[in-house]
Records
---
Amino acid sequence: MPRLKCIVAYDGTRYAGYQVQPNGNTVQEELEKALAKMHKGEKVKITASGRTDSGVHAKGQVIHFDTNLTIPPSNWKRALDSMLPPDIHIADAEEAADDFHARYDATGKEYRYFVWNSREPDIFRRHFSCHVKIPLNLEAMKKACRIIEGEHDFTSFCSSRTDVKGSKVRTIHQAFIEKDGAELTFIFKGSGFLYNMVRILVGTILEVGRGEREPEDLKAMIEALDREAAGKTAPPHGLFLWKVDY
Amino acid sequence: MPRLKCIVAYDGTRYAGYQVQPNGNTVQEELEKALAKMHKGEKVKITASGRTDSGVHAKGQVIHFDTNLTIPPSNWKRALDSMLPPDIHIADAEEAADDFHARYDATGKEYRYFVWNSREPDIFRRHFSCHVKIPLNLEAMKKACRIIEGEHDFTSFCSSRTDVKGSKVRTIHQAFIEKDGAELTFIFKGSGFLYNMVRILVGTILEVGRGEREPEDLKAMIEALDREAAGKTAPPHGLFLWKVDY
């Protein structure tokens, strides 16, 4: 039975996150509904690279599933896309190796977090970026980014609601900020990320940008191995799962 | 009684247009509700530079109203803004002359229309730009823009549902297209615009871009003085009322 790998984009605004759960509509549910329609009502099990929280978006979520349909791989993208609501889009679909696994085979991920830094809001970005009214110190935030790069135990930057029981050591290959007018883009590339890790990192770096903390404070925060040491969790709607590497 | 002039931005997605009407929620209604709250339930009459259709957005709609509240003009922006839903924003508020009129004193308007020209949709722009999958001929569309510039009778580019009974002669000072990757921005600056005029112009220019019409065909279309001669009306969600001049 061939295995399909798909790249999925979604606007997370009206979803209770990626993963199926008792309350609320989820992205996975929409994908499962669409696949069930294509498979004459039969349930198709979907595996994603990981979950995303309520309100978080994706440009490049990756999923896999097995199918007995005899659709040529080149037609899968359009066939599945046409069954989905306008806020979920299949950006790519291809046949994968029988043992490809969207979660276990991921070697790295990229997340991006968008901040609109201006006194005036941009209402047209309100679901896709976090509005910060007071001027942020970009140089200080860039310094903070350099401190978090590398291999660290990120316990301080992991929500206490995590279900990770093993090591919280992760490697951030790159953490940097791009500025385009009032729009700041925080880019994080790493081996893997803990629950809420990017949002806690951004929330903390924004505190540095506001002058409430010094960039150097991040060293002690990492060493504390205590969620209480780090800053607030930034809101979900600025965050995008941008890319998954295999 | 002082007269206030406000610049209003709105995301038109969930509104049945600007102007109050029997069915559906409108931007004007939200503004009136907010002003009534501020005026102890008293109804405040609002006049706008013009209406916008269902799904059409505004960066710079202008309204005026009279008020007997003793709020300093510098506090009006925040006071009114705080009463409005997140998809309507007061970008500016100032005291105007007693005889200022948002509609009659307008000397010109700027509209922008956004097209996302790529095989792939950008789901994050789906409410704010019109997706055109097939490649468009930019040079041909630029030629078409130059033909519509100047003073013309735009009867062919006016919806038959207009309530304009007089002259349909209008002057387009500038019509041009900016390209930034897959995003095309159609910019129209003119003395005034008829009902659906920008959307019919864009719909027609897109037919030129697709090779279905020649740029020179626009001359005959203008001369025909017949709505049937021009192209289709482009969808509302790509359109922004960008600026009103006084």
Note: Chain A has five helices and ten strands.
---
Amino acid sequence: MAPLADLYQVSMAYGHWRAGRHRCPAAAELFFRRPPFRGSFALGAGLAEGLRGLRAFRFSAADVAYLRSVLPSTTDDAFFDYLATLDASEVTVTAIPEGSVVFPRVPFLQVKGPLLVVQLLETTLLCLVNYASLVATNAARFRLLAGPDMKLMEMGLRRAQGPDGALSASKYSYIGGFDCTSNILAGKLYGIPVRGTIAHSFVMSFRCLEEVQPRELLPLAGGDPVDLADLAVSWLQRVCDLLQTPPSKASQGELAAFVSYAVTFPCDFQGLLDTYCVRRSGLPNFCAVALALHQLGYQAIGVRLDSGDLAQQSKEIRKVFRACEAHFQVPWFGTIPIAVSNDISEQSLEQFRREVRNLLAQLGCHPGDASRAEMSPGLSLGSEINMIGIGTNLVTCPLQPSLGCVYKLVEVNGSPCLKLTEDEEKMTIPGMKAIYRLYDAAGHPFMDLMALEEEPSPSAGQELGIRVLGRLEETTKVIPTTVEPLHRTYFRDGQVCEPLPSVPEVRTHAQVSLNLLNPVHRRLHEPQPYPVAVTERLHRLFLELRQGSH
Amino acid sequence: MAPLADLYQVSMAYGHWRAGRHRCPAAAELFFRRPPFRGSFALGAGLAEGLRGLRAFRFSAADVAYLRSVLPSTTDDAFFDYLATLDASEVTVTAIPEGSVVFPRVPFLQVKGPLLVVQLLETTLLCLVNYASLVATNAARFRLLAGPDMKLMEMGLRRAQGPDGALSASKYSYIGGFDCTSNILAGKLYGIPVRGTIAHSFVMSFRCLEEVQPRELLPLAGGDPVDLADLAVSWLQRVCDLLQTPPSKASQGELAAFVSYAVTFPCDFQGLLDTYCVRRSGLPNFCAVALALHQLGYQAIGVRLDSGDLAQQSKEIRKVFRACEAHFQVPWFGTIPIAVSNDISEQSLEQFRREVRNLLAQLGCHPGDASRAEMSPGLSLGSEINMIGIGTNLVTCPLQPSLGCVYKLVEVNGSPCLKLTEDEEKMTIPGMKAIYRLYDAAGHPFMDLMALEEEPSPSAGQELGIRVLGRLEETTKVIPTTVEPLHRTYFRDGQVCEPLPSVPEVRTHAQVSLNLLNPVHRRLHEPQPYPVAVTERLHRLFLELRQGSH
């Protein structure tokens, strides 16, 4: 594939080449300016793919021919010859490990190398890091809301920006804390666990029991095959008696679909309850088939609900399962996992949490307990819902569909650069930097500190005079208990030079990084902004450059 | 590439196969339920890629091996052998031509074939059509707001869902009415015009004029080379005198960058005005270099503004250009194209339109004229802004980041299917259908009508009794002046059987289709919903099936 680039980057490359500046040493940084989703943090992701992009960075003969056709006809031929020789072999990349919590203005990637190549890499890196970090952050927020025990499944394949967008969504949702995906290709390519349940179209494709073929199932413990359709019909009568709902209201097509699925997957039978009426059709039909299966020694693995008031219905479904458990003496029936889907958003999860709170209150819990339960991220959403499938609101990130990372030159030819605009937020911080994360005595990171590369590393336990972004006019004193240098060198001499963790390792690292955060920064609504600071020397450099440009 | 599929689809496929139903004739429809962005319409797009996906539909040996590893171990081996033989050769696809205006509930794709394959194609088709149609619709809205003469450039490469998401964004924005893209690869692959301007990083990479190399330029008409840097410095003095701004406030690095770019691209010189202060640096530096170039016979091609109040600043810039034109007697200077970018959204364009309205009011236009000017889509945004670059808000569609197309079975084994849920909107309309667009005497489409496939086609000029969705309880009479059958057969016997238009042809068709719309449906805010109806026969079928399921 041709390098990802915007045309102006190639025009500028020609400008540099004509000026003989293309091999000037340069450095650029990749960072975002505002944390996404009105939180305080993002998860940095996309590093491994960015490094692969670097390794593959090259203009093919066809790319060069195309560029020749779109650049002005006065462009020097020798420039195109030069383009054909380019690669990233002289580039060095340092970065914060993938899956780490990252903060606004703190570069999570630094690129050094010849000016022309450093500038050409801008779009490749932004394109590979931006969405990856955005969706990983979104997934992490869902995980924080749902608590550690809830199963979270990504199912956004139909809503992503085409096949590759969907693959990125599956991979980075997993990294952000999801458990599995519905996307087979993501499972195949990245080893992410895949899960799937029965769909409405399967249910709708049946009209009556006569269509079920084969209908016989061998009991798990052996014996003669049994007609599962007949058995389910007799169970339906008993279930309907118990639930006081007329069997005639239970869809025959739905029952046929469930029986057919159960004969095919007797150890993995699941029901989708809402193709027709949940209470009078989906639920009795599922219970009938699950009880018939139970009679043959098999255990149903779950149900899914895809419309309506999910929290309310899941309570009613749980009640029915418990009633069946008691009435038919089937010990596992009350705890059949309930999965929900249908446009689940952060707001939905918050609503589920409120339900739990109300439930606790009804159970006579102390209001403080209930309120604490609601406030604390990581709360289980109650026993009614065991798995949540999230598609659109995970992969398209509607609360903020783009992270807005930027890639800015910070040094050329040994001179630091500064972008000073009318827009204070759009200013850059000049110079090649070392980045440190400072931890307090409780083990929480409390500040990220940017220093000039040549400055000595700050020491743990020593007081530092620094300037916090946003209030640069005053010096602040801090004493870190621990100091962690954040960047590692990942790419040098055209090769990845640091072993890259596997996808599950990145996922684990992300949860560790999130857990270290102080709850005041981790909370999703109105978090305390995480302070980012510069050293006094870096601040002086900034002032000098600003002075010089006025 | 493996077929795009969710795991449950393969599980269901196994269910059908085990039941011997995998070759039952079946039909499915692809449609959306609500128009995006609170408008009344969408542009249907992604058909050509969907057809390519069909042609390539096949499970490789590796895909089959992977599926074997994730399906239950009890799965019959012969099923995997069967999967390896599957393709879309028995599938027929009819569709509304790509780029047409499409409405909620009206299928823009119909798929017929063996049940198992029809179901497996669901995700492939949804994934390829959903985002394509969404971003084409978004682009069309920007085009309606900006008017036909404004140049619109797509520049979302960094904000899309990875490289392929970005390519889709470029392609379908172009189809929706954009003029060009910054994305080189999109230019190379789809022949979309590419454009590019100078960027902040180029400007920032210069500190002083000494870095400019080479500095000499040959006058266009011939003669001795001239030091453009010296010439620009002398022009800067004259410009600063005229603008009454001190030359010392103009950044030397920025001037150097402009001179360097002008020497490299003398016929294509553009300025980016806001790396430093627009008024005291960017604008005087640009005018100085442009006037120096003019002295050598060259004409600058434009400026770009990427921060701050774009409407206001572009007015001030235009004023300065006109002042230079008058003072220095350079006839083309007042009309130098001004391009703007920086997070441009529909709201930004609406703000630009309000500015025009105010301007008209100031010029003493009749308030009605001004108000009409503001209301009418297609208004020029005034002479100050000539080109708009849109990235994030185009490609991520933040107003609604997903179209929500669905793919539903409508017939199996000759029997129509109906999904009846508690959620009225989620009901499907059963049976294989023919779709007609009805036009009024003014040539506007006024209704889409769904009929059963076997019904005779409605005739132009004849009264039809139909039922409008949303008020099915009453019969409505309409007399169409023209009746257009909407679907064509695009895929049959494993091949695309209808010549596919080129990307520019689809783009033209989209504008024609939009222009035919009645303004009451076309307007972006609170449009009149476009009526979609069913024939009496289709309505009776729906009632019968609903009856039967209760």
Note: DSSP finds 18 helices and 23 strands in chain A.
---
Amino acid sequence: MTLDLEMMGTKARQAAYDLALLPTTKKNELLAKMAQALLENSAVICAANEKDLAQAKDLKASFVDRLRLDEDRIKEIANGLLQVKALPDPIGKIDTGWVNEAGLQIVKRRVPLGVVGMIYEARPNVTVDASGLCFKAGNAVILRGGKEALATNKKLVEILRAVLEANGLDPNIFQLITETSHHVAEKFMQLNGYIDVLIPRGSARLIQTVVQKATVPVIETGAGNCHVYVDQSADLQMALKIIENAKCQRPSVCNAAETLLVHQAVAEEFLPKVADTLGKYHVELRGDAKTCEILGDASVLADERDWDTEYNDYILAVRVVDSLTDAITHINTHNTKHSETIVTNDQTNAQRFLNEVDAACVYLNASTRFTDGFAFGLGAEIGISTQKLHARGPMGLEALTTTKYVITGNGQIRQ
Amino acid sequence: MTLDLEMMGTKARQAAYDLALLPTTKKNELLAKMAQALLENSAVICAANEKDLAQAKDLKASFVDRLRLDEDRIKEIANGLLQVKALPDPIGKIDTGWVNEAGLQIVKRRVPLGVVGMIYEARPNVTVDASGLCFKAGNAVILRGGKEALATNKKLVEILRAVLEANGLDPNIFQLITETSHHVAEKFMQLNGYIDVLIPRGSARLIQTVVQKATVPVIETGAGNCHVYVDQSADLQMALKIIENAKCQRPSVCNAAETLLVHQAVAEEFLPKVADTLGKYHVELRGDAKTCEILGDASVLADERDWDTEYNDYILAVRVVDSLTDAITHINTHNTKHSETIVTNDQTNAQRFLNEVDAACVYLNASTRFTDGFAFGLGAEIGISTQKLHARGPMGLEALTTTKYVITGNGQIRQ
């Protein structure tokens, strides 16, 4: 192994200490310069990307599409940096404060996390997006992207580092791991003391690998087995629009619905409408026995695995439930704690669902598709946390910070 | 293995869902009843404790002391539950909220974490303290205490569970792992999906084992290599009182000072006073060359390891530094990110220290001994977090909660 991860970690820590003290206007100035530099270097970025694409030509079309950069996409990525520039700086905010018994002033102040480790797949946009967000929140970042994007990532990071250097900042705020073996990735996940948090972004498999192998704290993101529950009292027209949107507007994303639960009292009326509407999108319905009884040929019989599957595709599991309680139990048993919605006009049932369903985001009469940083209004997101520690749901800039107690006295000692 | 950890986890999850809905008054009522039950069962608890003590009689005196319960200690433990009862309930608090572009009301509400796993040593008081705090924050808890306290822990948990059962609650809110092998402990640390967070409490070795082995999210607590820095402009009388308090008031705890840094301009005047004052407590001083030059026989020469050692004893490492910058660099290189203090009358230096030192708690002109939940005024604590994720510094009840986005609409779909 030629790569010295501890050395990278040490450099990142030092760079992070300097960056933590940088005022907001200076950070914003640099974000604008980075955006500018990406646009100016569009041609060389595309040239590097061509090398990666040449290697990847036998891979799946959707994979290659995510890997591909062109001038328009580079413009989008540069715009992303300008959006981050426009966000309020989370650093320095006082969350709370008080004076204790001994007369000490105790203030809880937002500070950067320090060094963030990003592990992701062959999506070069993540390289810049994550760097921009980490930078604005005052963190150094060590990036480990998918090996298929290595030439592109090298070029992108080289450009961002050059901007830092040209402006008198430590370029080690951004570092890329250029040795993409699993062995190095594993060591990266165990760099305790050098990295404050690891954020994996990508497939469920990637995220699970990181959760299993890492000894550094991880924020688990992404997997979404989301449910739409249509209650007895639901406005069925509204319910139809919501399931259509939640399933079909963009089936490949984590906040798309994967299972529809329908109260038995409205199943016979509602399910044929669902089959009709989703039929236009060629959605495959996988129903329980009752659903199949109602829908006949329009549905195939689901098996137990369907309740736990995130299809990310034009497939929907459907189940008829006897009661709200059964719906809540089904969701809490099978969901990934991401986003769940109830469609109802019954206030009591709405409150029960919102209180009892265990998920980062619980909705009343709205599509699950709103679970993301932009739709929420957070401005941008580094991911959607499906764990309960530190951050839950869409993570904006504040999720990339921690707090520090600043305590001022005049000689107090403990009695 | 006779123990079914998954089954315990499933039971805990179910119990947690019920507990999450319990109103504050009911939780408080039950905490009072648990305190009462402990007092009433004092004799049987002591009898169980006698069995553990009989097995432990050849172990270190300090170990046996921590294991021992008597009527007074049981009273203290019961009082601890009443203190938790008196704390405000963190559940249900709305942290923030807004209406987004689409007209959805988005509210971020405090909810319990769910299931907390506690791993700790042979200190039976932790069994009750942790149970009380988790209960008040609406969490089920699975306890894994040191094997030397097994008989005592069994009895304590039996008493607490009986109170729950007698009051119509699920006793599986509190569960004890009664098989204390390392194999079972390791499996417990990897119960992803069943446990939402693991909190280890105890020695640095225990905590490091959990950090290394766990795949469940961990909150790292405890280790404290804390520094007192005496600046050039310090009030030396104040500085003397602070180092005396930080080192000697209770040397065995994590917020005690382990290293004294002194600006070279005041070292000759200050260090003999330190030797004099700490000499009364027979504190061993381990100094750098400059310190030894000033103190002669009153100090032994430190080696590099001393800067990284948490003595938890009447030993203090001492170093003369050339500047504030050197002091900050020393601290950021060697500290465990716990608690650090500067003694100074220089406002600029004070601000630099508070801004640039990387620790959960940074102090100006006060003893590091204030870093704990009670001294802070949080009422009680589940531990002191030395990591940056989720919670940092003394963790009160809020650290045992997470948030949930509750989103209400009237048919909104994503465009």
Note: The CA atoms of residues 171 and 219 of chain A lie 26 Å apart.
